[in-house]
Specification:
homodimer, 145 residues, alpha+beta, 2,3-Dihydroxybiphenyl 1,2-Dioxygenase, domain 1, 8-stranded mixed beta sheet, 3 helices, 8 strands, 19% helix
Chain lengths: 145, 145
């Protein structure tokens, strides 16, 4: 596998609206997508756009607020009540090839590929197999490139 | 303040050489800088380059291994023994303007600006003031842009 672009950094927050205000008023964000509910993960989600080099779009911040106490993000917030960096998401050209790659190395894939917040297939890998990082692998959206 | 580029994601690791091998062999990284010691933070450091859009350089992963038990990263690893995402670093055009901005909002700046791993001035902000994220602010290297 060839290292892909870091699509986003997932940040868990206890209050999405407060986090959006923080990114606008403290960090100076000017482009934040409209929040929506991602039922498969039991989270309300939006993306903060950051600039890349030479006028390109940079790595986004994905803000995640749990919508139920059973959400994996709710469980994570129990031990990180202020919120914080929850996962890192890398792009790959083909989700099934990537799944085969990580499985061939004995890495634990958490569930089957499913549609993620950007509308393309994703899966997560166990942080203990991934240098301590909960790692999301996401098929690159076709329309963006 | 206007939101700047995410220069890097700081990832604390218990073993830098093992982490470099992980990024090469599992994640497929092909460009990793030579490790060096950053005395001011008591860490050994290197950067994993990731691709951005349209052939640009993307957000880097900064790997941090403590060089002494007194290193802030050593203390962090006590509660995260496998390592993981430690901080997020945003670029700003002027470090002193940025310091004044965050202080005017009552955000706790951790120490005076000092020279960071990219050779430009940096400071850190307290995670409890920054939506749970230990946040590094870094003056953009002049030569890169």
């Amino acid at each position: 596998m060839k290292l892909g672009r870091i699509n986003h950094i997932g940040v868990a927050v206890p209050d999405l609206d407060a986090a959006i205000a923080y990114y606008r008023e403290v960090m100076g964000a000017t482009s934040i997508t409209e929040p929506f509910v991602l039922e498969s993960q039991q989270v309300r989600v939006c993306f903060v756009d950051t600039p890349g080099l030479s006028g390109t779009s940079g790595t986004q911040i994905e803000l995640l607020e749990p919508t139920s106490p059973q959400s994996p993000v709710a469980k994570w917030l129990e031990t990180h009540p202020f919120g914080g960096q929850h996962h890192l998401c890398y792009e790959v050209p083909d989700i099934h090839e990537a799944k085969n790659w990580f499985e061939s190395l004995g890495k634990r894939v958490l569930g089957d590929p499913r549609i993620g917040a950007h509308g393309t297939p994703i899966f997560f890998l166990h942080p203990k197999d991934m240098a301590g990082q909960l790692t999301e692998i996401m098929e690159t959206p076709k329309a963006v490139h």
